[in-house]
Specification:
The structure holds two protein chains of two kinds. Chain A is mainly beta. In chain A, 10% of the residues lie in helices and 43% in strands. In chain A, strands 1, 2, 3, 4, 6, 7, 8, 10, 11 and 14 form a ten-stranded mixed sheet that branches. Chain A has a two-stranded antiparallel ribbon with strand order 5-9. A two-stranded antiparallel ribbon of chain A has the order 12-13. In chain A, a hairpin with a 5-residue loop joins β3 and β4. Chain B is of the alpha+beta class. Chain B has two domains: 31 residues; 146 residues, Immunoglobulin-like (Sandwich). Chain B is built from two helices and twelve strands; from the N terminus they run ααββββββββββββ. In chain B, strands 1, 6, 7, 8, 10 and 11 form a six-stranded mixed sheet that branches. In chain B, strands 2, 3, 4, 5, 9 and 12 form a six-stranded mixed sheet that branches. Classes of the chains: A mainly beta, B alpha+beta. The interface between A and B is medium-sized, with 24 and 26 residues.
């Protein structure tokens, strides 16, 4: 009886294509300077700098510099862009500094928007363990998905979301330079 | 006339329901972006047209391509640069019966990209409108160079999707227009 049930279950599974395999990690590993298409933003990691954040009690930070173009159809808030970017040194994930992204504009100027088709240079800061002065870091760029049926969340994402599961679009290996303060 | 069997009527109802559902889903997917699905019906016009809706009188008095923009505030003078181009739009707006504010100010380019006013010019973000008092305000947009032809400015006033009344203004920018340097003064 049990064997019969198991056989029927197997036959049913086989008929519908079997259990889905674990999705293979197809993320490309690229070096800094290579443009990566996240689906909503085109990102080129330009470099990273290990230093201290003079504006926030000399916290040790790793600051990643990127060139970013919003390839979507609508103005995106900087906070949305941040959700698709992570950084790791060796096997260790770095915690992002809250509101740690800055557009590089002229002296005294600030902005929190990414306008479609207008490239910007920006930095994103991550907390760095005090004793960690890496020579290389990996920036993980996750893909964005657009759901045209969605009315959107309240976090500025609208119909856009970054799925948490699955591999990133690309891992970017970038050399890390030393800095006194940032 | 032969009576239609009950099962056939039932089957017909099921099929009709499925067809209607499929049509609704198809139509929903055809419609454009979520913001546009909920957008108010708009009164259309062009620069210097006085547009009027239920509770809003709205005129774009000037729209020009700018680069660079020099911003003078009481504290500092800064030069705003962009790899694209700025569009500076000057606006007169007035509430007609009750206080309101302009919502969802968007510049839409001919290829359908939608730009919010740039926060690099800080005095322009929310204009409160009082009845029968004209408020002069301005909005700065940052768009890719060469995408200005056919750009439109849209905004709406009022609460709730159904009661909002919108305007949609052709900014009369041409493909051959060249940006010029402009200096603006801002209280902030």
């Amino acid at each position: 009886m049990a064997a019969g049930l198991a056989g029927a279950a197997l036959a049913a599974l086989a008929a519908f294509g079997g259990l889905s395999p674990v999705s293979p990690d197809l993320a490309a590993t690229v070096t800094s300077g290579t443009p990566v298409d996240q689906g909503r933003f085109s990102v080129t990691v330009l470099g990273a700098e290990a230093g201290r954040d003079s504006a926030s009690a000399d916290t040790p930070v790793l600051v990643v510099t990127m060139r970013v173009t919003n390839t979507g159809r609508e103005t995106a808030p900087l906070t949305a862009f941040e959700r698709g970017v992570g950084a790791r040194v060796g096997g260790r994930w770095l915690r992002p500094v809250p509101f740690g992204s800055r557009l590089e504009l002229s002296e005294g100027e600030t902005s929190t928007q990414l306008q479609p088709g207008v490239p910007v240079r920006l930095t994103k800061a991550f907390h760095r363990p005090e004793a960690l002065w890496p020579s290389e870091a990996t920036v993980e760029l996750r893909g964005w998905e657009y759901d045209r049926g969605s009315f959107g969340d309240v976090d500025g994402g609208g119909p856009w979301s970054v799925p948490d599961s699955g591999p990133p679009v690309a891992r970017v290996r970038t050399p890390v330079t030393m800095a006194g303060t940032t | 006339m032969t009576a239609v069997p009950r099962w056939a009527r039932l089957a017909g109802a099921v099929v009709l329901t499925l067809v209607l559902l499929a049509a609704a889903v198809w139509l929903h997917g055809r419609l454009r972006m979520p913001l546009q699905r909920q957008a108010p019906l708009a009164v259309r016009g062009t620069v210097n047209d006085q547009l009027q809706t239920r509770n809003l009188r709205f005129t774009v008095t000037r729209a020009r391509l700018v680069k660079p923009l020099t911003l003078k505030t009481p504290r500092a003078t800064s030069r705003l640069e962009t790899p694209g181009v700025f569009v500076l739009v000057e606006v007169n707006a007035m509430a007609l019966s009750e206080p309101t504010s302009l919502a969802a100010i968007v510049l839409t380019t001919a290829d359908g990209h939608r730009y919010q006013p740039s926060d690099r010019l800080r005095d322009a973000t929310s204009a409160r409108l009082d009845p029968l008092l004209t408020t002069r305000t301005r909005y700065l947009f940052e768009i890719p160079a060469g995408s200005q032809a056919g750009a439109r400015l849209s905004t709406s006033a009022g609460q709730g999707a159904l009661l909002r009344a919108g305007v949609d203004v052709d900014l009369e920018l041409g493909a051959a227009d060249r940006p010029r340097p402009v200096t603006v003064r801002s209280p902030r």
